[in-house]
């Protein structure tokens, strides 16, 4: 009982507890495991204990309307593929709509780039080439018939390899599951397919969605390829620049959205924690993130935590009516730019008394993860895990978390959420996006954040003679749950007058005196 922090029973009570556990607890444990835990990954039999992230007492599902996207005007096809590859979704969509480029041509361009850079970046697990050309042909044929499905029509994209696509491996980045094929369609894949998007690759996730180490190697940061991308959405971040969402997006200098919890259904997606997991886009810009979010958001019967969130339209937010806070660690250029656009900026601090934020996240995440990979651990597969100081250690420790203390952690989480709600006296706030306490807090609360590139700086210890490798600088724009449109609108306003999100990493030209050590 020492490791349960329960050393207050006398010997008589301990013997009674032992007898009770043998007679009642252990048989029940085994029976329940047979019912729901023989399959790993948490794809089926979700918990009936659901987390509601909304701060609204009533329903917000009455009117879910599509966003009104801007249309790019006077877009002309660039003469070289490199320029095409760095165009936004809106721009590429206009090229396709006006038949300046076909989806087949665009698919060729992106597959060539992935294959060119993947030996260095290690960002792709599986190329879905046959499927991509099939979907590209369907997109081109529809357009020839006068049917245009919207801004994602014919646009190539990649999915993190925790998302099931039939007939292709869904490896979860793990050598245990590297040959796994799940013949089911994840909700997000179905949504993107219905919008005419073209899947070109399954992208790296760190093993079992942890960090950037996977069974095939370790994914690198395109801005500094001696550095790793962090994870767990290592491949999506690296590929976009050349899924955890904040850390890899910040490291690789791309725009990303971690949406409000429950906004995007997670059906047929590997689960770490049913009350923490979120799916969101990595893109060139906040505009692109808004387009993708509008496509993938929604509820599905396979994910009881998903809901139809009536988001406002980020393209029709009057930012001059917003009051936005900025924390001590905010990038002040973002503050100054938003102020120049008419936003009211005020110093801000989140006030809360809960001191165990990080441990609440760990208890929640690790216990939930172990429930989804109970059989994996019991069969000894943790010995084969790619990084022994990661999930193996955390999930062994999770065996010693009593149910009562898991519930106490959720009660403390509830207290934290109430305090954050009371403290959130602005429409949004700007602050560091990789501060670990804030990452934990944001996930526990379920609040949305847009990761915004804000610049580049020199790497530490550059080689003599210099290098073009850089360290990316980013910030986060946070909003209350169900107000993703506010964070997106502010990010779009910032990016409308800056070009940090348009910079290109120097993969092909590091500098004359720079040699990468591998």
UniProtKB/TrEMBL annotation:
Any Pfam family matching the protein: Amidase
Gene3D superfamilies reported for this sequence: Amidase signature (AS) domain
Organism superkingdom: Eukaryota
InterPro entries in the record: Amidase (IPR000120), Amidase_dom (IPR023631), AS_sf (IPR036928)
One Gene Ontology MF term: catalytic activity
Domain Amidase: 105-424
Official protein name in the record: Amidase domain-containing protein
Organism (species): Zea mays (Maize)
């Amino acid at each position: 009982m020492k490791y349960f922090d329960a050393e207050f029973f006398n010997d008589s009570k301990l013997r009674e507890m032992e007898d009770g556990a043998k007679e009642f607890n252990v048989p029940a444990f085994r029976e329940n495991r047979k019912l729901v835990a023989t399959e790993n990954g948490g794809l089926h039999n979700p918990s009936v204990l659901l987390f509601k992230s909304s701060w609204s007492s009533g329903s917000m599902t009455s009117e879910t309307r599509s966003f009104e996207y801007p249309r790019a005007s006077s877009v002309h096809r660039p003469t070289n593929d490199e320029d095409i590859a760095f165009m936004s979704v809106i721009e590429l969509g206009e090229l396709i709509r006006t038949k300046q480029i076909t989806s087949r041509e665009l698919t060729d361009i992106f597959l060539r780039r992935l294959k060119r850079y993947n030996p260095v970046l290690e960002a792709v697990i599986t190329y879905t080439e046959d499927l991509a050309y099939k979907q590209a042909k369907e997109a081109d044929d529809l357009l020839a018939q006068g049917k245009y499905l919207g801004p994602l029509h014919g646009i190539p994209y990649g999915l993190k390899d925790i998302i099931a696509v039939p007939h292709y491996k869904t490896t979860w980045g793990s050598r245990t599951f590297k040959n796994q094929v799940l013949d089911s369609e994840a909700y997000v894949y179905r949504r993107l397919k219905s919008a005419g998007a073209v899947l070109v690759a399954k992208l790296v996730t760190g093993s079992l969605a942890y960090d950037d180490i996977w069974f095939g190697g370790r994914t690198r940061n395109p801005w500094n390829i001696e550095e790793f991308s962090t994870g767990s959405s290592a491949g999506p971040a690296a590929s976009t620049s050349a899924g955890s969402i904040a850390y890899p997006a910040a490291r690789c200098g791309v725009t990303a959205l971690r949406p409000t919890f429950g906004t995007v259904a997670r059906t047929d997606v590997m689960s770490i924690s049913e009350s923490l997991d979120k799916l969101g886009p990595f893109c060139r810009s906040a505009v692109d993130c808004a387009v993708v979010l509008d496509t993938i958001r929604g509820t599905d019967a396979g994910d009881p935590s998903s809901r139809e969130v009536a988001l406002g339209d980020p393209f029709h937010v009057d930012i001059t009516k917003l009051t936005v806070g900025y924390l001590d660690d905010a990038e002040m250029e973002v503050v100054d730019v938003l102020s120049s656009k008419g936003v009211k900026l005020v110093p801000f601090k989140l006030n809360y008394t809960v001191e165990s934020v990080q441990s609440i996240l760990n208890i929640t995440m690790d216990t939930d993860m172990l429930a989804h990979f109970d059989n994996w651990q019991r069969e000894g597969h943790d010995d084969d895990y790619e990084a022994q100081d990661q999930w193996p250690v955390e999930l062994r420790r999770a065996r010693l978390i009593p149910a009562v203390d898991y519930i106490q952690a959720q009660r403390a989480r509830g207290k934290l959420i109430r305090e954050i709600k009371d403290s959130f006296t602005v429409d949004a706030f700007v602050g560091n996006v990789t501060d670990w306490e804030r990452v934990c807090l944001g996930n526990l609360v379920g609040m949305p954040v847009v990761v915004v590139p804000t610049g580049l700086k020199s790497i530490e210890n550059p080689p003599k003679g210099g290098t073009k490798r850089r360290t990316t600088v980013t910030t986060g724009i946070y909003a209350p749950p169900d107000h993703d449109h506010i964070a997106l609108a502010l990010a779009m306003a910032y990016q409308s007058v800056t070009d940090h999100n348009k910079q290109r990493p120097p993969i092909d030209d590091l500098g004359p005196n720079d040699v990468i050590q591998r």
